[in-house]
Amino acid sequence: MIKKGISRQIVLHYFIVVFLALLLVELVFLFSMRTYYYDSIYNYLNSSTDVPQNYISDQSSPVKYQEIIQRYELGDTVEVQLLDTQGNVLQNSTNFRVDKPIQTGDIPQALAGSTGRWIGKQAGTGENVMAVTRQIQVNGDNYLVRYVTSLERVNQKLLTITMVAVGVGAAVLIIVLVVSLGLANSIVRPLNNIIGVSTLMAKGDFNARIKGNYPHEIGELASTLNYMAEEIIRSNQIKDDFISSISHELRTPLTGIKGWSETLVSGGFDPEETKLGMSIISKETDRLIGLVEEMLDFSKLQQNQMKMVIGEVNLKEVLQETMLNVWAKAEQKKIQLKLEPGARPFIVQADGNRLKQVFLNIVDNAIKFSPEESTIFIMLTEVSPERVRISIQDAGIGISQEHLEKVKDRFFQVNPNRGGTGLGLAITQQIVQLHNGEMYIDSEIEKGTTVMIELPLTKQQEILQLT
Fold first, then answer.
1. The domain made up of 216-302 is a member of CATH 3.30.43.10
2. φ and ψ at 423, to 5 degrees?
3. d(C-alpha 207, C-alpha 224), whole Å
4. Structure pTM?
5. Using CA atoms, how far apart are residues 30 and 22, in angstroms rounded to an integer?
6. Least confident of 90-104, 256-270, 316-330, 417-431
7. Is the domain defined by 54-150 classed in CATH 3.30.450.20?
8. Nearest CA among 121, 179, 189, 123 for reference residue 155
9. Tens digit of each residue's pLDDT (9 = 90 or more) over 426-446
């Protein structure tokens, strides 16, 4: 007995489908064989009634009836009967007297002008017979010639064919059962392996792997689960690196704040030194606030809880404000910020503060990774009547193709030693997507990086452009 599960379902479905198909084929075959044998007998008996009547003598009735019977005889296996139009037997080849009129279905058919055919049990003997009747005319008188032959031998042969067909069908079903069991095992065995490895993964063992080259969808499932485990390990590693990095990022400003706080509390400093200490404390506090806000933003985005205040935003004005915010930092490295706003204003439906956050993060990264005395270009370009592109291009160290595919992933950092949380570009990407936009990064090592953001223009902007 096959236990419940996918194996039983596969075997059962295959067995039922093949059984029904086989049953239909055998029924059609057996019906065809029966029809063939019965039609062959009918055609033989029917053709025997085509005997010329010109040579029947006009003698007394018994002699004439006997002569007609002799003309139509077919041998010992076929009984020939001569009937009048009322169905009374006038003469037969066996000389067996029949007192009652014959009322089987072949008599009315013959009287109607066609060849009558009837299959049933012979009265008195109970034997299966076929009767074929046809109307003839002898010397102006109408008679019925009726052939009666036994079907017992034919039925016995048909029974033998039926038994052989049933045996062949049973053999086919056994083969199908064996093949379907093998097929079911070939599917269930790798599934059980996958279930076992998945259970280990569910318990936290992500080093477990599904081994073996499985075909088709099962192989794809195994590859997907292995890939999932690798991605979980990578994500856990990135998360661990993030925790280590953020711990370091938080410890550094906290150490500075604590150190200067204790120093200032001890007293004995002139106003200039006190002012310097307070300035460092304020600077490190802002740094801590920035880190915390970045993590809060990421948490809100992950939980779809970030609130957007949508309105009409002039991209040129937002970019100018962004440049003013980072001007001091760019000035320290003697980096020039050049804005190319395009020939006309570009208005988008967006949250101005969030867009400013996006541009600040990208421009700040460009300044951080650009060499001194270089130039950062900020350009507004019309992509189509419905979209605008903001490009921020630097001449910095660039990003390798290997890292370029992962740079927008959360917690990912090309160089963890440079500090940061690895969330900046992940947050930027999600904010852009919330504005129905797209962000692309094109970079080459030692030649610089270009970050492109495409946003949809407002409907009003499209109308103004068309007019």
1. no
2. -105, -15
3. 14
4. 0.48
5. 12
6. 417-431
7. yes
8. 121
9. 778 888 888 889 888 888 888
